[in-house]
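HUMAN:
Could you generate one sequence with tokenized structure?
ASSISTANT:
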Amino acid sequence: MTSSHQASTMIQEQEKMKLDPKPGFVIKTKILESKDASKISTKVFINVCHDSRVPKPSVDFEPEVVFPKIIENQWEIPIVVSTAKESKDKKGFPSLVYDCCINDDCFRWCQISKDLRLILIEWCIESIELITTVTLERDYSIPKMLSKGDLTQTELTAEELSDLGFKKLHDLKQDETLGLVEELKLDGEEEPDKKLPSLFNIGGEGTSKKPLIEEL
């Protein structure tokens, strides 16, 4: 190995950062559609976790500022999605687990704003769909647990971390996003735990059920 190649390798290794996420909450759903028919109906657990090294939006969260930006697809929470981990549900059936890691401040914002929390849940579901080409059930539940299994210490380069605006929802129609935000504004106080409809299926049936709280 040449000295220049060794130096390049060392620089790349130095740039890598290992996330050490802290647990937040869990989303429980299942696979509705998949090219692999054997995976249909498989339960999926999404660990929403947080780490200070994950970038946050350039504009801090203020509802009156951020919701209009969401409508224009100009504001989102960067999400680091782990690789799939195999697990089992409480009945012993195979299940899949993903970690969706966000910035510590973003997690605090979602604790304060239930509307933003609902939007984050949808973004996490869609992030997994984008990298796996499966369709997940939107009638999810929120189990009484901080995480499903151990959280993944994902390794990323500094460049990858700075590029975390990867999850862009460019195909969303502005009126659909506006309808989502307006629905949250109108209904958030009366039904704070209302399930968020899919951003790709706003107005469809079965989008108003309340998430269940389950013991696993």
About this structure: Residues 17-157+164-187 form one domain.
